[in-house]
Amino acid sequence: MAQRAQTLGVAVIGTGKMGADHVRRIEEVTSGARVTAVVDVDAERAKAVAARVDHCTAYTDPAAAMASAEVDAVLIASPGPAHEAALLTAFEHDLPVLCEKPLTPDSASALRVLRAEQELGHRRVQVGFMRRYDAEYMKLKALLETGQLGRPLMLHNRHRNVASPPGWTSEMLINDSVTHEMDVTRWLLGHEITAVTVLAPSPSGNAPDGIRDPQFVVFETDGGAIVDVEIYVNCGFGYQVQAEVVCERGTARVGDGHAMITHAAGRWGGIIAQDYIERFADAYDREVQAWVDATRRGEVTGPSAWDGYAVAAVCEAGVRSLQEGGRAAVDLVDRPALYGG
Ligand SMILES: NC(=O)C1=CN([C@@H]2O[C@H](COP(=O)(O)OP(=O)(O)OC[C@H]3O[C@@H](n4cnc5c(N)ncnc54)[C@H](O)[C@@H]3O)[C@@H](O)[C@H]2O)C=CC1
Ligand SMILES: O=C1[C@@H](O)[C@H](O)[C@@H](O)[C@H](O)[C@H]1O
After folding, report:
1. Is the pTM of this model over 0.95?
2. Could you give the ipTM of this predicted complex?
3. Which intervals hold domain Gfo/Idh/MocA-like oxidoreductase C-terminal (predicted)?
């Protein structure tokens, strides 16, 4: 793959919460790239974000931005249903892509993306599973790789959000939130998830009418591990993501948020982050920097389109279990050679 320009010109597609934060990050935090184009179907939003950046053009059509000579790479932060079209257009221009999760919203469209990338003959996509770049998760992964604790037997996860955005459904707890635990399970343990069982207690009074929140999700893996995820997106008090691996000779846990504990006025405690932008700020910075660095070296690293496809397939099993009850098997195609199969 050819070495790219000295400073990468990046088009950011989708300038909502994540896209605008990534624009800020590329301009103010990371090095080696600048934002030369922003795209949003909402023209006013794109213009407002472009106005904050020197020499940045606002577009409403992703294809027009990707055809620009100023664009060497693409960061996709539009909603999931718009990802497939943007990815396929990026492939037509052979542009490297950092695509926010999900790769696409279902496994059939994810497979079309996998096939298109295979036709290119080289990887082009890094998927935005940012927990792989979080300092605590990286430490946990490194520890597991030493083998000191023995074989991982179980992984317990908690994933809590303050409140679900308007328009949320019970399925989105799986498709939008638990996707991260699906990726983390596959990455930390090196196993594929083979079956999903979703259980739901009587909904919290905090949850909007009709939303089954919280849910308790169980994965079985091909390495014989059992993984549980408490997902509670209207907990009201903070954003918490915690994981504890139980191995044969010990356990390791991350995400307790113990960076600073204060003792004062007869109490002790710390601050709980209020959303992912705050909790995972460093992880997003590291993720984008890793993408820029790899792209400038002419490489593609990090979570692949295969990882995005595998997670989409696990989501489908999760939604089947939620809707129909019981245990749902995960249906995966064989892993293609491009992704280490
Ligand atoms: N990694 C993470 O922790 C997180 C990832 N995400 C992901 O980031 C993506 C964006 O999410 P948010 O920023 O929360 O959404 P958002 O709704 O705040 O912003 C999306 C933006 O995309 C624009 N848009 C819609 N269709 C478009 C199209 N076809 N082309 C260009 N722009 C289009 C919308 O007008 C809007 O400005 C989603 O894929 C979401 O799953 C979201 C939150 C956290
Ligand atoms: O990806 C994300 C959101 O889309 C999702 O809605 C949240 O639950 C996750 O914590 C966040 O990381």
Report:
1. yes
2. 0.99
3. 141-327
